[in-house]
Design goal:
Structural class: alpha/beta
Distance between the termini: 56 Å
Shape: elongated
Largest sheet: 5 strands, mixed
Radius of gyration: 33 Å
Number of domains: 3
Helix content: 40-55%
Strand order of the largest sheet: 4-1-3-2-5
Strand content: 5-15%
Length: 553
């Protein structure tokens, strides 16, 4: 940063210097804390303006740094000040005041006041180090040259400066790595003597790639995200740059990593971006790859890991590697799958894969699993049939549970009126009370559960078996979660009618799709229904199951 030189012109559309003590001290503390690691300032955005740089964004930072240099020089802490100058279109006196900070003039106008207050704050910060003031100044000066880095963004000549300034400062949206890469790439791709100008072509291709990656289903399939990011092409750029991910990734790591490569061979770099984009589209358009990759991404496999896995492999070999990854992620034998329960973290994994594979394995179908809906949802294991409501402990929960089960009992033709009416009368009596007590609720819970569990008794301990589980988007309605099959079936079908995303196997369960027609009774989840469901699960996942000796629960 200390090597910035030249003259910066601050145009009239910008306000004057307005940083206060908080911002100035934060900058000082950040630079001081960066003595052993790089520190990135927010990008400085400039445009060519004759022999000067028009400072579109970064006035506050460059002014503060100028004042720090001036203070160290004026106090004899360093021999030289800043190597750049600032001038203002409408505040010509401010440039002179930066050079000669006269305290007697600080009240002449608002710009002088803020400039002098910042200068005073800088002095207080250095004085706060007492006898180590000179040592701190030396280390600080070194850090400005060795550790502090400015992301330099040169805007295109035809870009309106005032519009760009507004965009950058409304809500203080910083430039992204992708925008910085684009600016450098386009500037290096402009024609010179004997070189074809490819900037316009690359800009058009850039927009096409960004548009393609903004397809919600494609984006969710390859990233596991339901929400949009500011730029999606950054996924490709970050992958090419490599390095740490998530919170461990330093600011502007992608731009800094790619800068020299783009400067040296812009077309070669851009070709790699285009190839990566084509690879993603190819994966997306293949139903088999789409579903297998989508599952692995949903299970936290990163895009960069998939790129590495596919490197130098034909499609068949790559797909075989995906199968191996899925098999290792599931790591179940048939017996282990049948033994899964609500308390195993592999139960939700197996049900997710069953839903995805059920769609993928359909011949001559264009249907796809929606990884976008999956990413947007809060999926949980739901008991297909719950036999008690012990987890309900509030009056409003008991009231809702009774209301749901009353409705299911009324609709159930398999039970005669003579058997229904006494129970319904007791339910109505309790629901009419101002407040339901647990003493009111528990006897009715037992009667309703018994009536609505005919043929579906799970007293053998199968209530938590995977044969009694399905994936549903999380519901805060705990009364519904603790309900019997008939209640849940009505709720799931109602959600389906209203357009909620119901995973295909969950819908099939509540439609009794896996049970033979001659066994159909739509109001109970029987032992036979559970067995048919489990058999289908094993059949669909057969190719991913391991021999018993290789599997672990």
């Amino acid at each position: 940063m200390g090597e910035i030189s030249g003259s910066f012109y601050v145009p009239a559309y910008q306000r004057g210097y307005r940083w206060g003590e908080v911002e100035v001290r934060r900058l000082l503390d950040d630079v001081w804390g960066s003595r052993d690691r790089p520190y990135y300032l927010q990008p400085v955005v400039v445009k060519r303006y004759g022999d000067e740089w028009e400072l579109v964004d970064g006035q506050q930072r460059l002014t503060t740094l100028f004042l720090i240099f001036q203070y160290m020089k004026a106090e004899g802490l360093q021999s030289s000040g800043a190597d750049y100058r600032l001038r203002y279109e409408t505040r010509e006196d401010s440039a002179a005041y930066l050079e000669e900070l006269d305290p007697d003039r600080c009240q002449e106008n608002i710009d002088f006041f803020h400039i002098y207050e910042a200068y005073r704050c800088i002095g207080a910060w250095f004085d706060g180090h007492g006898s180590r003031r000179q040592y701190v100044a030396n280390k600080f000066y070194d850090a400005l040259f060795e550790q502090v880095r400015v992301i330099w963004y040169e805007a295109a000549d035809d870009l309106d400066s005032a519009t760009l300034f507004t965009r950058l400062n409304v809500g203080r949206i910083p430039l992204t790595d992708a925008e910085l890469v684009k600016a450098l790439l386009l500037s290096r791709s402009r024609g010179s003597v004997g070189v074809t100008d490819r900037a316009l072509e690359i800009a058009a291709q850039w927009d096409v790639i960004e548009r393609d990656l903004r397809d919600p289903e494609l984006w969710a399939f390859i990233t596991g995200k339901g929400a949009q990011d500011p730029t999606h092409i950054s996924l490709l750029l970050d992958t090419i740059a490599g390095g740490p991910t998530g919170r461990d990734r330093p600011p502007f790591h992608t731009f800094e990593t790619l800068r020299e490569r783009i400067a040296a061979a812009p077309q070669e770099f851009w070709n790699e971006v285009v190839d990566l984009h084509s690879l993603v589209l190819g994966w997306f358009e293949s139903r088999d790859l789409f579903h297998k990759i989508g599952y692995l991404v949903a299970r936290w496999t990163s895009f960069s890991d998939l790129i590495e896995l596919s490197r130098d492999k034909p499609k068949s070999r790559f797909e075989a590697e995906l199968d191996r990854f899925i098999r290792n992620d599931l790591r179940l034998s048939e017996a282990a799958l049948r033994d899964l329960s609500y308390f195993s973290d592999k139960a939700s994994r197996a049900l997710l894969l069953m839903n995805i594979e059920t769609i993928r394995q359909r011949q001559h179908s264009s249907e796809r699993y929606s990884f976008r809906e999956h990413a947007l949802g809060h999926w949980s294991l739901e008991h297909v049939h719950a036999q008690n409501a012990e987890r309900l402990n509030r009056a409003e929960q008991w009231q809702e549970w009774l209301r749901l089960h009353r409705r299911a009992l009324v609709a159930l033709d398999e039970i005669g009126q003579a058997e229904k009416e006494p129970v319904l009368a007791m339910v109505d009596e309790v629901l009419a009370k101002p407040a339901i007590t647990e003493a009111d609720f528990r006897p009715l819970e037992l009667q309703l559960t018994e009536l609505l569990s005919v043929g579906g008794d799970l007293s053998d301990g199968g209530v938590d078996s995977i044969a009694n589980l399905a994936l549903l988007d999380g519901d805060d309605n705990s009364a519904l979660s603790n309900s019997v099959f008939a209640v849940k079936r009505a709720a799931v079908l109602d959600r389906d009618r209203r357009g909620s995303y119901i995973p295909v196997c969950t819908r099939n369960v509540f439609l009794k799709y896996y049970s033979p027609a001659d066994e159909h009774q739509m109001h109970f989840w029987s032992a036979q229904d559970r067995e048919h469901y489990l058999d289908e699960m094993v059949s669909v996942l057969r190719d991913y199951l391991l021999p018993a000796k290789e599997a672990t629960l």
